[in-house]
Design a protein that fits this description.
The complex is a heterodimer of chains A (296) and B (232).
Chain A: E1 6-14, E2 17-22, E3 25-31, H1 33-43, E4 48-52, H2 55-58, H3 64-73, E5 78-81, H4 87-96, E6 100-103, H5 105-109, H6 112-121, E7 126-134, E8 140-144, E9 149-154, H7 155-165, E10 169-174, H8 186-195, E11 200-203, H9 209-217, E12 222-225, H10 227-233, H11 240-243, H12 250-253, H13 271-280
Parallel strand pairs in A: 1-4, 1-12, 4-5, 5-6, 6-7, 7-10, 10-11, 11-12
Antiparallel strand pairs in A: 1-2, 2-3, 7-8, 8-9
Chain B: E1 4-8, H1 16-24, E2 28-32, H2 35-39, E3 44-46, H3 52-61, H4 65-73, E4 78-81, H5 83-87, E5 89-91, E6 104-110, E7 125-130, E8 132-133, E9 153-158, E10 160-164, E11 170-176, E12 179-187, E13 190-193, H6 201-214
Parallel strand pairs in B: 1-2, 1-3, 3-4, 4-13, 5-6
Antiparallel strand pairs in B: 6-10, 7-9, 8-11, 11-12, 12-13
The chains are: A alpha/beta (296), B alpha/beta (232).
Chain lengths: 296, 232
C-alpha cells in the first residue's frame, strides 16, 4: 500500500468570506474561512486548499491575510490558488505561509510559467489546477477562469504536459460535478491518474463517503471536498449583518439543512466519518486523533 | 521566552513554516545565513526543499559549510529537515548530487516508487505516512520522537531518501510501497527527519518541541566522525 489517502477540504474564498457554488458558479456565502479551517484542522484534515474564486476574474489577489493567519496556527500543508499570474504572486503567498500554490489560467495561457515556477520554487510547491468539463464527444476539455472559459486544450494531454513541465501535483476539478453532491467524475480521475506520474487530487462532486471510495479506486491520491464538509460545519450563530453587504446570502438566511435543491444529495459529514468509511473499505488514511502522550 | 532556535536561511524553500512552529511553541527564532550566525547558534535547524546539488552550492556560496561542520562537532543540537536531513549525509544522490556535508556516514538515493508487486507508485512521495521503530529494542524516550505513538503519521514530500551506513543511527523507519527508508535519524547531537514536523499537525509540533526543549545542549560528540570536516 502506498501512503495514506489525503482528505483535503477545499475552501473557496471571496473577499473575506467562505463561499460555495455549483459548477463553480452561483456562489453563496457560508461564513468566515478561518472558523471552518480551524474546525477541519481539529477534525483531522490532512491538508487545506484555499481558492480565491473571483481573483482570476478581476486580476487581483486578496488571500494573503487569511493565509498568514492560517499558517500561524494550523500546522498542516496549505495550498492556495486563484488568480496567480506571476512569480511575485507566488512568492507573496509562499511568504505569507502557503506551502503550495495552485495555478490554472496563467499556466494554460503560458505553459512555460509552470517550468519557471517549478525551477524557482521547486516542483513540490507547484500544483497545476485543471478545471475539466466533459465534451460532447467522450473527452474532457480544460477550462479557465473558474470554469467559464474553454481553453481548447484536451484535459488529459494538458495534465501530462503540466506534469512534464514540473507540476508537482494536479488538482483536478470536475466543473460538471462541482457542488452537485452527485459524486466525483470517476472516468476523468481514471484517465488523468493513469496518464500522469504525479499525485492527483480529485475535486468536485463529493456528497458522501462512498464518493471518496469511488474516486480513490479510480486512482486519486488525495480527495478534496467542500460542500459536504461546509454544510455540516455551517452554524446559524453567524451574524448575518456582517455578511449583508456581500449580496448572495440566501443560504445563510435559509434552512441550515442545506440549500433546497441540494437536500438529499449531500450528506453533511465530518472528516473523521469519512476516514472511518475509507478504512472500512480497505483504504489507508491518517489515524486521527493520534495518540499523543504529552500535552501540547 | 523559550529556547533560542536558529534556522538556516540559505534560499532553499520555505523557512517560514518551521519558524512559525517554533514561535508557536514559545521559542525565540533567529534566521541565519552566515558562518557567524551559525557559530552563534544554540540549537540549529537546517531546513530545505529542492535539489541536493543546488542546496550544497547555496551553502558553499554563503560560506556556511565549514561553519555547519564546526557547529556539529561542538555537540550542540542540529536538526536537518527533509532535504536538510539528506544534506547531513556524505554522498548525495547519483543524479548530480555530489558531496554532502558528511556529518553522518551514508548516502542519498532516489525512491524506487514501487509497490509489492512491482507496480509504479507516484514519486514524489507526498502525504501522511507512519513512522515505526527500527528494531524491537529501540525506544524513543529522550529522543525527538519522545511521546510519539508507534505508526503515528507525519507529512512527507520527497523523492530521495537517506541510507546511513550505520543502522544504529536510524531511529524510525517508514514504508512507501516495497521500500523502507529512515524517516528519523539520530547520531548524538545530530538529528534528522525526512518528514516535515512543522506541517504534521499537533504531533509534528511535539517533535519540534522535543528538539527545542529537550535535546541536551551538549550532546555526545563521539558520533560525529572525526574527519567530518573533509567533506567541504
Amino acid at each position: 500500500m502506498p501512503g495514506n489517502l489525503r482528505i483535503i477540504p477545499k475552501l473557496e474564498i471571496k473577499g473575506p468570506n467562505l463561499v460555495k457554488g455549483v459548477h463553480l458558479e452561483g456562489l453563496r456565502v457560508l461564513g468566515k474561512p478561518w472558523d471552518f479551517a480551524c474546525r477541519y484542522y481539529e477534525e483531522g484534515a490532512d491538508e487545506l486548499i484555499y481558492m480565491d474564486v473571483v481573483a482570476s476574474l478581476y486580476g487581483r489577489n486578496s488571500l494573503a491575510d487569511i493565509v498568514a493567519r492560517t499558517a500561524n496556527d494550523l500546522f498542516i500543508p496549505l495550498t492556495v490558488g486563484g488568480g496567480l499570474r506571476t512569480l511575485d504572486d507566488i512568492r507573496t503567498l509562499l511568504r505569507a505561509g502557503a506551502d503550495k500554490v495552485a495555478i490554472n489560467t496563467a499556466a494554460i495561457k503560458n505553459p512555460g510559467f509552470i517550468r519557471e515556477a517549478a525551477r524557482t520554487f521547486g516542483s513540490q510547491c507547484i500544483v497545476v489546477s485543471i478545471e475539466a468539463k466533459r465534451t460532447p464527444g467522450s473527452g474532457y476539455e480544460a477550462y479557465t477562469d473558474s470554469g467559464r472559459e474553454p481553453s481548447g486544450r484536451d484535459a488529459v494531454e494538458w495534465a501530462v504536459e503540466a506534469a512534464s513541465l514540473g507540476a508537482g501535483e494536479i488538482l483536478l476539478t470536475s466543473v460538471d460535478m462541482d457542488g452537485t453532491g452527485l459524486g466525483y467524475d470517476v472516468e476523468l480521475i481514471k484517465r488523468i491518474s493513469a496518464a500522469v506520474p504525479v499525485p492527483v487530487i480529485a475535486s468536485g462532486g463529493c456528497g458522501n463517503p462512498e464518493h471518496m471510495c469511488e474516486a480513490a479506486k479510480a486512482g486519486a491520491d488525495a480527495l478534496s471536498a467542500a460542500s459536504v464538509f461546509h454544510y455540516r460545519s455551517f452554524r446559524r450563530e453567524v451574524d448575518i449583518g456582517e455578511f449583508s453587504a456581500e449580496g448572495n446570502i440566501e443560504f445563510m438566511l435559509g434552512n441550515t439543512g442545506g440549500h433546497g435543491f441540494l437536500r438529499g444529495r449531500i450528506s453533511p459529514c465530518g472528516i473523521g466519518e469519512f476516514k472511518e468509511r475509507l478504512c472500512a473499505a480497505g483504504m489507508k488514511t491518517r489515524m486521527f486523533p493520534q495518540p499523543v502522550s504529552m500535552a501540547l | 521566552m523559550g529556547p533560542r532556535v536558529t534556522i538556516l536561511d540559505y534560499g532553499m524553500g520555505n523557512i517560514f513554516s518551521i519558524e512559525r512552529a517554533m514561535r508557536k511553541l514559545g521559542c525565540e527564532t533567529v534566521l541565519a545565513d552566515s558562518p557567524e550566525g551559525i557559530a552563534g547558534a544554540e540549537r540549529l535547524i537546517l531546513p530545505g526543499v529542492g535539489a541536493f546539488g543546488k542546496a550544497m552550492e547555496e551553502l558553499e556560496r554563503r560560506d556556511c559549510v565549514r561553519a555547519i561542520l564546526d557547529y556539529a562537532a561542538s555537540g550542540k543540537p542540529l536538526l536537518g529537515i527533509c532535504l536538510g536531513m539528506q544534506l547531513l549525509m556524505r554522498e548525495g544522490s547519483e543524479f548530480g548530487g555530489g558531496r554532502g556535508l558528511g556529518i553522518v556516514e551514508g548516502r542519498v538515493v532516489a525512491l524506487k516508487g514501487e509497490d509489492m508487486d512491482g507496480r509504479r507508485l507516484k514519486v514524489p512521495h507526498i502525504g501522511w505516512n507512519g513512522v515505526c521503530e527500527n528494531g524491537k529494542e529501540a525506544s524513543w524516550k529522550g529522543t525527538i520522537l519522545d511521546g510519539v505513538g508507534w505508526d503515528s503519521s507525519f507529512y512527507f514530500v520527497h523523492s530521495f531518501v537517506c541510507v546511513p551506513s550505520d543502522q544504529g543511527a536510524v531511529l524510525a523507519e517508514t514504508s512507501y510501497g516495497s521500500e523502507r527508508f529512515p524517516s528519523v535519524i539520530q547520531a548524538g547531537n545530530i538529528h534528522g527527519c525526512q518528514f516535515h514536523p512543522e506541517k504534521s499537525g499537533p504531533l509534528g509540533l511535539a517533535v519540534c518541541r522535543n528538539f527545542a526543549f529537550n535535546t541536551p545542549e551538549k550532546g555526545c560528540g563521539d558520533a560525529i566522525r572525526k574527519d567530518a570536516g573533509q567533506a567541504a
